[in-house]
UniProtKB/TrEMBL annotation:
Record gene name: tsaD
GO BP terms, alphabetized: tRNA threonylcarbamoyladenosine modification
Sites where the protein binds Fe cation: H111, H115, D302
Domain Gcp-like, chain residue ranges per copy: 24-309
Binding site for substrate: L134, V135, S136, G137, G138, D167, G180, N274
Enzyme class: transferase
Protein known as: tRNA N6-adenosine threonylcarbamoyltransferase
Amino acid sequence: MLVLGIESSCDETGLALYDTEAGLLAHALHSQIAMHQEYGGVVPELASRDHIRRALPLLDQVLLEAGKTRQDIDAIAYTQGPGLAGALLVGASLANALAFALDIPVVPVHHLEGHLLSPLLSADPPAFPFVALLVSGGHTQLMEVDGFAHYTILGETLDDAAGEAFDKTAKLLGLSYPGGPAISRMAEFGIPGQYKLPRPMLHSGNLDFSFSGLKTAVLTQVRNAGTNICDQYKADLARAFVDAIVEVLVAKSLAALKQTHLKTLVVAGGVGANSQLREALNNAARQRGYRVHYPELAFCTDNGAMIAFAGAMRLKHWPQTADTRYEYTVRPRWDLAEVMLP
């Protein structure tokens, strides 16, 4: 079965073709970073309009790369939510219009389930069960994954997500958008221990997170510094911030593995590409006999491949997910627990 995946939840337009026998055939992605940089963040209306411009050319690109035609597609998976409503509507309307024209089913996919399953696209995929750390701009969650669509949330952020804290801290330091990669690069030049920042909920006794206090602590440091903010100051404070957030993520992940008695950790989402986090997790796992799996770097950010794969998995395990009515809604807010198999 050949499944087309369409991702348009925020500021990346991603399309991909996944074959249930041959694997991923082609994928293409357009990022809107350059367009949103002057605004310091994503402008929803601009994002939606850009998805409209990019989607069909990207479809032609993946079809050409895979050596397929539209008539070869057996089903279309699209991101139904969560995300920006207007951006989601672009992907949903394209998916349903194409499916109607081709007389094939559509499969609505939860964006986070796409991220969660993205490491399964790698050459060395993890086996169920495992603990998953979903860490991105909008979400930070730990969950026990017993199998496809069998997820138990172990802990989640009570306020800001880790990626959101990265972006807001980068903005406080006057770094470029997107903030996550910028602050990570700046931290490489920082001196460890120059500033002491809190490790929120590190000793809370549960697996929940909180990053708003860490962001506020950075704001206090910047205000206290006044006009004396040089590049080395920024680097040192960025290093302190990254060290704090990485320590919390690593500690909670290890606690989740211990609590579930599992030996495998899967890390997914945009922050999963962070080099400091990967190094710390790899070192901690090696010392304790755990294994850590990540998506390929190309699949850490939003992408069509993860949506195509998640859609194919849904068709395999839950065929009734397929929709041929072509009546669609989008879900800007959507709890992952709602997509679990009965």
